[in-house]
């Protein structure tokens, strides 16, 4: 079985509703996944925008998600989910901050990336940057999946 991730809030390559952006309620969208390998011990989710003018911009990293999880509910950020931690995003916050591309810059593609890991938790220093969470997870990844949403202002 192949690892997949999806959101009930938007479909692949469709517009992310304003509710999940910094122009709206700035809450994380619901995510669900299926097909995790049997050897999965935890998960990491990273949200990034490769279309940002200054290079890839990270909006969220949540790690040490238990292997028993099959998704994250809407507004999961900051909920202290069973020991899950959150990395510092490009806005300087250790939480989800949704899309907010520059006005008139055109559509941006937001990659909601999921990784199944072979370790129960990542040993990470306090307040890691989102990109450092992903780098720390990379050697432990046994499967990856992503869903992409689009947003422009």
UniProtKB/TrEMBL annotation:
Transmembrane region positions?
Answer: none
Give the range the annotation lists for the signal sequence. Answer: none
Q: What SUPFAM superfamilies is this protein classified in?
A: PEBP-like
The entry's protein name is Phosphatidylethanolamine-binding protein
């Amino acid at each position: 079985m192949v690892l997949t991730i999806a959101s009930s809030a938007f479909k692949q390559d469709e517009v992310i509703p304003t509710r999940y952006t910094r122009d709206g309620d700035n809450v994380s969208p619901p995510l669900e996944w299926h097909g995790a390998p049997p050897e999965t011990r935890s998960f990491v989710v990273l949200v990034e925008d490769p279309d940002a003018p200054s290079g890839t911009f990270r909006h969220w990293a949540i790690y040490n998600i238990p292997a028993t999880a099959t998704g994250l509910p809407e507004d999961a950020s900051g909920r202290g989910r069973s020991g899950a931690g959150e990395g510092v995003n490009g806005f300087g916050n250790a939480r989800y901050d949704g899309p907010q591309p520059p006005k008139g810059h055109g559509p941006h593609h937001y990659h909601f990336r999921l990784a199944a890991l072979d370790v129960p938790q990542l040993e990470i220093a306090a307040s890691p940057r989102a990109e450092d969470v992903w780098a720390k997870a990379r050697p432990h990844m046994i499967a990856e999946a992503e869903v992409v949403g689009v947003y422009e202002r």
